[in-house]
Amino acid sequence: MPNFNHLLPRANSIVFVDYKPAELRINKDWLIIYYAKNPMTEKMERFRMRVPVLKNKSERTRHANRIVAEINKKLASGWSPWLETPGKSFKAFEEGCNRFLDNTEKEIGDGIKRPDTLRAYKSYLNMIKTYLQEKAIKITFAIEFNKDVAIGYLDWIYYERQNSPNTYNNHLQFLCTFGNFLIERGYIKENPTNEISKKRKQLKKRKVIDPHIKTLLSEKLPLFNFNYYALCMVTYYCMVRRTEITKLKVSDFNLTEDYITIPGTVSKNRKDEYVTIPKELKVILERHFEGAQYNNFAFSANDFKAGKHQLPPKRISDSWVQVRKHLGLGTQFQFYSLKDTGITDLFGLGISPLKIRDQARHYDLKITELYTPRSGGGDESLKNSGAKF
């Protein structure tokens, strides 16, 4: 689990903004005095500690100096006395982050969320940590995780790191989810993403695969790696998502009745779903599964063969990049172009839009239509439709 301790030391030029170091003041009482910023009022407030009476002045002074040094060491490391103030709702940001991840792990164990969700959450929190480090922003209390921080972080993601609007929206959605968690657990009272708008979605940059490139791939991919070719064809014909493919077992492929079962434990939608295996794909799968065990992963870490060890999703994308470079294809032809092309081709064949929606497992036909780019010029079928007024 990521360690969010000391999120994060400030630059040296502003190290004393949140506190004034402890010092010993000797009057009638021996007091150790120091100041720390109240996270609610943003003002410095005084803290006092009496030095106990000891047998002689020298021993009492040494004891007081040890206390002063220890307090200043803690203050310099990011500690605040407000974290230990009784009756105050000043909860640590670090504690909220770790509790959020702990709760997510529990939900994964209970089948409520998928392991991929935890990996994504850790990645988002680490990115927030990187931002705070880079900008020398120290967050000790959860209430300091406010709208100003959220806006600054999102601007950093979009403008400074030159990410896409879709990436910006993904980070905004995470901040909203995390903020809701902190509200429910009493860490903060208002979601820091309130009134922060999403950016307009981009059109998909990946391109439908041209017929001549499809021919090239169908000739070269089986020679590159037949098992990887079979995996790619599952994406093209059945629109199965990359992560889902890595979790499917041989037993999920029914080559007698020509369908794939995508269990709720595997499906992005967490529901048991079914997709049809076309006859062209069936022939490919029959060869791919020769000698495979029923409980094997359909595509394993062993060179994409059916096997015992689960395939990392990134291997699929990395192998696609290798194929693309080897064949001299442009970067617009991404792995998921196979899925887009499969949907587009079914529309071109006149298959019912509802059947295409079900094969792609989209909850709405509008989602399916997003995957089908409009013609860049005149459409031949419309030119020759024969329609007259």
TrEMBL record:
Per UniProt, which keywords does this protein have? DNA recombination, DNA-binding
Q: What is this protein called?
A: Site-specific integrase
Query: Which is an annotated Pfam family here?
Result: Phage_int_SAM_5
Query: In terms of domain of life, where is this protein from?
Result: Bacteria
Organism this protein belongs to: Flavobacterium alkalisoli
Query: What GO annotations for molecular function exist for this entry?
Result: DNA binding
Provide the GO biological process annotations: DNA integration; DNA recombination
Residue stretches making up the Tyr recombinase domain: 204-387
Query: What is this organism's lineage?
Result: Bacteria, Pseudomonadati, Bacteroidota, Flavobacteriia, Flavobacteriales
InterPro entries on file: DNA_brk_join_enz, Integrase-like_cat_sf, Integrase_catalytic, Integrase_recombinase_N, SAM-like_dom, Tyrosine_recombinase_XerCD
